[in-house]
# Entry
Amino acid sequence: MATILREWSYRYQWLYDAIARLAAVSVGGEGRFRRLALQGLTIDSETKVLDLCCGSGQATQVLVQYSQNVTGLDASPLSLQRARHNVPQAQYTEAFAENMPFADNCFDLVHTSAAMHEMQPDQLRQILKEVYRVLKPGGVLALVDFHAPTNPLFWPPISLFLWLFETETAWQLIQTDLPGLLAEMGFRDKQQTLYAGGSLQVICARK
# Structure
């Protein structure tokens, strides 16, 4: 699954950014999309934030407007090179999300945007376990990713998007009960909000 456009979107930053802006139109634009998971959260300059799978820093750029203590983590050296250039205010760590080089109970907020659909089911479970480990007691996971549309009109565009740019892991994610999986990990106070005809989910859960 996926086409050559997927490879190009990771190779060429301008194409990735154009795709991201186009996809964000369904929720009112990229600015609103980047803040969806932060609505209702208390974040100040001292909040210790992890932008998990930060990519080139699109969400990191927003997070540093709230906190002076933001760390971006990604496994791609190229993405981190771009992130350091785009958002020099943050700190960065090159590592896999399923094996984070951080101490237990060290972050107030772990944020991840449109990244978990890249993971195989076993990877996803391990990553969520790691998120739980590195969060402080009472800390929050804020997650944005695909969801199976609840409005039938959104199935054609989301199917086309997944076919063009994603792999089977994205299809697996939209069949996954993420709130239920988070409950298995020990998370509480889970809140799931759907956008764009149900094709996008925002989940906040507390350790």
Notes: The first strand starts at residue 48 and ends at 52. The mean pLDDT is 89. The longest helix spans residues 121-134.
